[in-house]
Write a structure and sequence with these properties.
This protein is an alpha/beta fold. The chain is built from 14 helices and eleven strands. β10 and β11 form a beta hairpin. α1 packs across α6 and α6 packs across α7.
């Protein structure tokens, strides 16, 4: 068992190096206390053109370079997997099989092993072998069509909804399968697709739409920027404020802070008047700079927050108080989430020989 701390202390994970959701999943498992061995192809240690210290998804892992196509490299991998609890990989369907490292031969050597896979389209289906990126995967789920201004094109929500939500679903699937393996003694394959995760995240909105409570037109609903009391407004200095005064009591608090009459809160109950109310609020927010509004409205339940960029966010008072960010070797990074009442992070073991010695696979 590992001497590290955290809910996943003692869990041994082998991650096959790549980019996107798989290394994100490996990072999260490591932050929860698992020991993660990242197997890299010889000559492909860095998959992104950035210095290693900024490759935040791969910190906290032990790294081992191997020739995965050679007989010696494969034999070493099988010996390692026999001592591991889980494998995670993010290659296109069929790549691991062509390497001789697909689920069948691996689990023949290690029947308790959980085999976690994450792809864009999934392991099967007509698109499974097609190339793609985050925006492609969320495009067919209804998610992309719902995000953006009413009079403009859909807006990609970075690569959060496909890539990194896919990594979260991979983690959830792997941990669930690990719990099942503890009682059954048998591992299983986890097929986590980005397209699956993006569709699943839309569950609530699909229900609302079919109940007649959500319109398909972007910018015409209460939570997509259509409702004037739920959206983003520009302040006098050109910076932005996020407004979420959805309920009446919060609307009234906001109007009081803006120096506007309550009639605008009542008018917002009529969809036909939304554009007029929005114009009034937009003009009011132009009267002060962003941070002036933040100070004026603080503690008023007006549900207004500054829209901070990545340079500003770590210095926000709440971020500082909660420890949302940490500085490691001079690099700012988001802190691990979620939080537990006991420490979660196992100490990283830099030397793969040391780690594999602990696993009994040296």
């Amino acid at each position: 068992m590992s001497e590290g701390k955290g809910p996943l202390a003692g869990v041994r994970v082998v991650e096959f190096a790549g980019i996107g959701p798989c290394p994100f999943a490996g990072m999260l498992l490591a932050q929860m206390g698992a020991e993660v061995l990242r197997i890299e192809r010889d000559g492909h240690a860095n998959y992104l053109p950035i210095p290693e210290r900024f490759d935040l998804l791969n910190t906290g892992k032990t790294r081992l370079a191997l020739d995965m196509k050679s007989a010696a490299g494969k034999a070493r991998i099988f010996a390692i997997l026999a001592r591991a609890d889980a494998l995670i990989e993010g290659y296109r369907p069929g790549v691991m099989e062509r390497l001789g490292l697909g689920p069948e031969p691996v689990r023949a050597h290690a029947p308790r092993l959980v085999y976690g896979r994450v792809t864009g389209w999934g392991q099967d289906g007509p698109y499974a072998q097609e190339a793609g990126h985050d925006i492609n995967y969320i495009a067919i789920t209804g998610a992309l069509a719902a995000i953006g201004p009413r009079d403009g094109p859909p807006v990609p929500p970075l690569n959060l909804v496909g890539d990194f939500a896919g990594g979260l679903y991979l983690c959830f699937g792997v941990v669930s399968a690990l719990l099942a393996a503890r009682s059954s003694g048998e591992g299983q394959v986890v097929d986590a697709a980005m397209v699956d995760g993006a569709a699943h995240l839309m569950t609530f909105l699909y229900g609302l739409n079919q109940a007649g409570l959500w319109r398909l037109e972007r910018g015409s609903n209460e939570a997509d920027g259509g409702f004037p009391f739920y959206g983003v407004y520009q302040a006098g200095d050109g910076r932005w404020l996020a407004v979420a005064a959805a309920e009446m009591k919060f609307r009234l608090a906001l109007l009081e802070g803006l120096g506007l009459d309550r009639e605008w809160a009542d008018m917002a109950t009529r969809r036909k008047d939304w554009a007029r109310v929005r114009a009034v609020l937009a003009a009011a927010f132009k009267a002060r700079d962003r941070d002036d509004w933040v100070r004026l409205l603080a503690g008023t339940d007006s549900c207004v927050s500054p829209v901070l960029d990545m340079a500003e966010a770590p210095a926000d008072p709440h971020a500082v108080a909660r420890g949302l960010f940490e500085v490691v070797d001079g690099v700012v990074r988001p802190a691990a989430a979620p939080r537990f009442s006991r420490p979660t992070r196992a100490p990283a073991i830099a030397d793969p020989a040391d780690l594999l010695g602990r696993w009994g696979a040296g």
